[in-house]
Design brief:
The chain is of the alpha/beta class. The chain contains 16 helices and 11 strands. It has an 11-stranded mixed β-sheet with strand order 1-3-2-4-6-5-10-11-9-7-8, with helices on both faces. The structure holds glutamine.
Length: 484
């Protein structure tokens, strides 16, 4: 086995036994990146010397934590002191973060080495990584297709074995959907499980940082490292992380699996549905019981999300005015022209669309009709989940209605792009946790992975890992790799 093929668990164990050095691992991944990146576009930037220096420092000391010496990639909307953080936007060109995100601090405390920064949709707005102003990322299973988004670079880098794992962010599906398209495990933690301090905010009431990894065990290890309370994020919850890795082996006997009727009502590809239903049968065979349940307000989730997320984005992105961050328009006549031109030149089309939409739904006269109304829908969606979790332990759904779509297929049609998020958005509105893992492959021109979404209740990540661990024990999909 070559070094770049290791999982996080394997990499951590071999470094601990001193069979390989962290420096060897970083070199192997850098070589992989150099070979694949020109075509793949998963990474925005990396500093080989800095990564090697961190690795050498880990090699020179006894293990400081469970991820000692393990290289991990970061989405380009996470702050690392002194590093570029572009959010794949022109407006943040040249900006360097002045402090470390809490997740970065925690990864370092666990001994991890920061490998490089992954591509994304601009400001995490999108589902295909095509709105990155640098380049689109390609799907490692089929270079004609998107890896999903917005954490498409993270998913593609992990699937292509350029990194053992990566962090992403998920506001409406941006970890789970690319994980599904690329054949990774992706987890959106419960809102408040992971500190958002140092994450460039898109929609603060929905954003969560989480892992993209090769298997559930790796995701559990990373979640354990990055979660926990943080006084610098007032929405972070007080619970210390439980032993997620131990949950993987606990089995699922008598667990109740809810199948939401509204998700299986004909809106998805037939072979995606087949793969998901086959996975449900595997889980039943392991002693769990499937029950049909209802989430009656599902059909309003996408509309409510695109009101709330754009409203919050319009407020959050107001800070990019050419004064404090990144790029500033040249030779403006006065401050107003400076703001206007900086933003006109700095933001891409999708980000502008959302700022305009968000400003509109918050404007006086429309606020009650749109923003307030969407908040009420959000409350109903939360209630749907609360009631569902009185009857079952987790919900099972497809992660996406179809496998990876083609580059260019939806980028000219925002509504089609938004509708691709239909199965992932409700979990963000409700704040519950959800994980995507591979439950099969379908043939298009090429073989493409299909994602199974496991949704758990608030702070129910251990149950997600029980189900994911049991499923991976009984299947081998997660061992398949693209590109040889
Ligand atoms: N695709 C969704 C959007 O465009 C979700 C993005 C995300 O989760 N960051 O808003």
């Amino acid at each position: 086995m070559e070094l770049h093929e290791f999982t996080v668990s394997e990499a951590a164990a071999t470094v601990r036994r001193r069979e390989v050095s962290s420096t060897d691992l970083v070199r192997a991944l850098l070589a992989r990146m150099e070979a694949l990146e020109p075509a793949l576009g998963a990474m925005l930037h990396w500093d080989a010397e800095a990564a090697l220096a961190e690795a050498r420092a880990r090699d020179a000391e006894p293990p400081i934590g469970p991820l000692h010496g393990v290289p991990i990639a970061l989405k380009d909307n996470l702050s690392v002191k002194g590093q570029f953080c572009s959010c794949a936007s022109r407006i943040l060109q040249g900006y360097r973060a002045p402090y470390d995100a809490t997740v970065v601090e925690k990864l370092r405390q666990a001994g991890a080495v920061l490998l490089g920064r992954t591509n994304m949709d601009e400001f995490a707005m999108g589902s295909s990584t095509e709105s990155s102003v640098i380049c689109p990322t390609r799907n490692p299973w089929d270079f004609e297709r998107t890896p999903g988004g917005s954490s498409g670079g993270s998913a593609a880098a992990v699937a292509a074995r350029e990194s053992f794992a990566a962090l992403g962010s998920d506001t409406g599906g941006s970890i789970r959907q690319p994980a599904a398209f690329c054949g990774c495990v992706g987890l959106k933690p419960t809102y408040g499980r992971v500190s958002r301090y140092g994450l460039v905010a898109f929609a603060s009431s929905l954003d969560q940082i989480g892992p993209l990894a090769r298997d559930a065990q790796d995701a559990a290890r990373i979640l354990h490292a990055i979660s926990g309370p943080d006084p610098r994020d007032s929405t972070s919850l007080p619970d210390a992380p439980p032993d997620f890795v131990a949950a993987l082996g606990r089995g699922i006997r008598r667990l109740k699996l809810g199948l939401p009727r509204e998700y299986f009502s004909g809106g998805m590809d037939a072979d995606v549905e087949q793969a998901v239903r086959a996975a449900v049968r595997v889980l039943e065979g392991l002693g769990a019981e499937a029950v049909e349940i209802s989430l009656p307000h599902t059909e309003h989730a996408v509309a409510a999300y695109y009101v709330l997320a754009t409203a919050e984005a319009s407020a959050n992105l107001a800070r990019f005015d050419g004064v404090r961050y990144g790029r500033r328009a040249e030779n403006p006549a006065d401050p107003l022209e400076m703001y206007g031109r900086t933003r006109a030149e700095g933001f891409g089309a999708e980000v502008k669309r959302r700022i305009i939409l968000g400003t509109y739904v918050l404007s006086s006269g429309y606020h009650d009709a749109y923003y307030l109304h969407a908040q009420k829908v959000r409350t109903l969606i939360r209630r749907d989940f609360r009631q569902a979790f009185e009857r079952c332990d987790v919900l099972l759904t497809p992660t996406t209605p179809s496998p990876a779509f083609k580059l260019g297929e939806k980028i000219q049609d925002p509504l089609q792009m938004y509708l691709a998020d239909i199965f992932t958005i409700a979990a963000n509105l409700a704040g519950v946790c959800a994980l995507s893992l591979t439950c099969g492959f379908v043939e298009r021109e090429k073989k493409l992975p299909v994602g199974l979404q496991i949704i758990g209740p608030w702070m129910g990540e251990e149950t997600l890992f029980r189900v994911a661990g049991a499923y991976e024990q009984a299947s081998a999909w997660h061992k398949e790799a693209p590109l040889g």
